[in-house]
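This section describes the prediction task in plain terms. A model, or a person checking by hand, is given the sequence of a single protein chain and must write out its three-dimensional structure as a string of tokens. No templates, partner chains or ligands are provided. The sample shown here is typical of the held-out split.
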Amino acid sequence: MKLQIKGIGASPGLAAAKAYIYRSEHYVPIHSQVEQPDTEIERFQAAIRQTQVEIEEIRNITEQRLGSDKAEIFEGHLMILEDPDLIDVIVDKISEEAINAEYALYETSQSFIKVLRQMDDEYLRERASDISDVCGTIMNHLRGIKQSDLSGISEECIVIAQDLTPSDTAKLNLDFVKGFITEIGSRTSHSAIMARSLGIPAIVGAGTELHRMQSGTMVHIDGSEGALVIDPSEQELAIFTEKKSRYDIRQADLAQWKYRTSLSSDGHQVELAANIGKLEDVQKALDNGAEAIGLFRTEFLYMGRSKLPSEEEQFSSYKYVLEKMEGKPVVIRTLDIGGDKELPYLDLPKESNPFLGQRALRFCLDRPDIFRTQLRALLRASRYGNLKIMFPMIAVLSELREAKRILEEEKQKLASEGIEVADAIEIGMMIEVPSAAVSADLFAKEVDFFSIGTNDLIQYTMAADRMNETVSYLYQPCHPSILRLIRMVITAAGKEGKWVGMCGEMAGDETAIPLLLGLGLHEFSMSAGSILPARELIGQLSHALWTPLADKAMELATQDEIQAFVNHLKQGGNVA
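The expected answer:
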């Protein structure tokens, strides 16, 4: 059976081996009444204790294989076992409805999972997988069965599955498992993250075509491109072998850039930072040579739960990241909900156009109780590292001033309580709204830095929803209008002696990087996996040369023309 399948490249690398089809059981329990709910609750709690022991074993195995940082996924799983929003609801359901523990567990967990999987935010959808993984283990213990796992594989293979949980991935026998591919999933799924940590190629989201496969069929996968070839010919295998050799050489070349300073070929220094959304992302950033955290999305603390996080929960998370970065800059963005990110437990009114509505700082200023709690947690954590606080979605100066006023009030309150706060905390804002970019000269007088959020800046400038495929052609990072706004912001900041970063996808775009370097961008914040290629590219570029070239590029009329201009010069061409 000759077949090529395209999925999402989740973990880079190439591998060739026989397919191993792994099918996990989807169990749906029956509903039954019980005469003694208290006994049933005891049975459920015993299953939780057994699950805790099993997860701790997996965590310890992962820690031994990959280090404590990679094992943090399972710390999150242990926290689910203690989450009253889930566990107490199940216990109450058993007690109040006098039903069997299996059905109470299934119905409650599926309710949580359904809500989370409907959300647009990938991190929240991943929270659904965590709950499914943990509750599946509890269910096995309630049923008194042992789920088959992947640790017993004893010959070289590539695992093919509908999905893999973090527990499944942690148990992979790397002596024999050379990679995996799943029907569902995304680059941010825990199985993908684990694959990158384990250093094995992986493809996710490959679809139901995988159903046609059989164990023992020869396959080869390209985790960078998300490509799977089933039953390849001898010629295809020869091409694959040559490609793998080139890939291995390329990875060795990139590794040498991990500990280097981010310098252009003529010695101009910039900062390469990582965007993170979860605590476990910090180690990945460090593993990839990040010099800072340029964007810590704090929404994950608020989402996928039934109530607001406490000040202590937030403080603990911010403190962890700051300590982990050991004095390197950490830019933490205050709560940015709205648009495609909702908090169901707040029961906010529906808006006809949420991307232009009560989101981010607008929401925080409308709900100062929520905002103040976060600011207190940030201020308390500030003494544990190099914290920089950033406000999102600012359109007018009055919003910035009000946010700074509230921040200062909370700082004074903490001082009166005898709670220590760092002496110097830089305060910045995101440039996402065209009005802020055009008025950057006014804002620059009242902040310490800007961070350009190109994802939203592009969609607002082009009046095109980036989630709408019918107008996706208008999402053009290198359009002259976008580049001119960026230049305007950097110039305005420079006149006030302030630095400018960028935390949108554009910061890691290899076509945009030469232009951004020439425009004078100070900090490039991107996904961790993009850092080393970006550092290598910058090391090959002359800042002095690209400064006038960036201005020349903006004289061109279209993104296509600009991209062709940049690529021509990167390949050694001359300026016409």
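For orientation: The chain has 21 helices and 16 strands.
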